[in-house]
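Quick review question:
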């Protein structure tokens, strides 16, 4: 169900530096309250839903924020990439108890948000690390829809994260290529084959 449900969601998503250690991340996310919740998950290709050998993601949750760290391989060498949050603030309200593509809607009872997380150019070896932080009630960057991470939901929301390639850098558009969903891509994917959602990872609340 993980692959056919949650990862199918990532594949059909129509919008989507270094890895910090847990100890290095704690000071920047330190909050009053309970200790952070930490979860780990594989990173999967979205073309065939297979885990990428050696790739992984970590989600750090505090009372009022989340931080995603992804270390991955097999990206387009030198290409521009963006990372995208898909936040299910009320995962218990997802259809059939699983958050899937039918739940991605501004009107979903799961209270879904889709928004930009991070972006940069990857190295010539196709390996890269992505790190992004999202605070409750404070979305940043492009928002496709939704309120972001709602207040009180940092520890209980289901969090999906998608990596999208924007192709080789176009130096007149590179800022848009690493900060918007269609930067350098255009509205018709069949005309811009360099742009696609390639990898994804999922973290369910503990």
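Suggested answer, residue by residue:
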């Amino acid at each position: 169900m993980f692959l056919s449900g949650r990862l199918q969601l990532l594949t059909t998503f129509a919008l989507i530096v270094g890895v910090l250690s847990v100890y290095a991340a704690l000071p920047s996310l330190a909050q009053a309250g309970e200790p952070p919740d930490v979860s780990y998950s594989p990173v999967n290709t979205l073309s065939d839903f297979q885990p990428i050998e050696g790739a992984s993601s970590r989600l750090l949750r505090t009372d009022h924020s989340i931080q995603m760290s992804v270390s991955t391989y097999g990206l387009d060498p030198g290409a521009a990439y963006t990372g995208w949050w898909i936040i299910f603030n009320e995962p218990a309200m997802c259809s059939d108890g699983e958050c899937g593509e039918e739940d991605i809607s501004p009107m979903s009872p799961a209270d879904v948000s889709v928004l930009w997380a991070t972006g940069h150019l990857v190295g010539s070896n196709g390996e890269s690390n992505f790190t992004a932080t999202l605070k409750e009630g404070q979305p940043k960057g492009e928002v496709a829809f939704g309120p972001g991470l709602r207040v009180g939901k940092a520890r209980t929301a289901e969090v999906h994260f998608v990596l999208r390639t924007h192709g080789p850098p176009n130096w007149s558009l590179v800022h848009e290529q690493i900060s918007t969903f269609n930067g350098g891509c255009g509205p018709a994917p069949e005309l811009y084959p360099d742009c696609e959602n390639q990898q994804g990872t999922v973290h369910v609340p503990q």
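Why it works: Residues 33 and 139 are 22 Å apart (CA to CA). Helices lie at 2-12, 22-29, 174-177.
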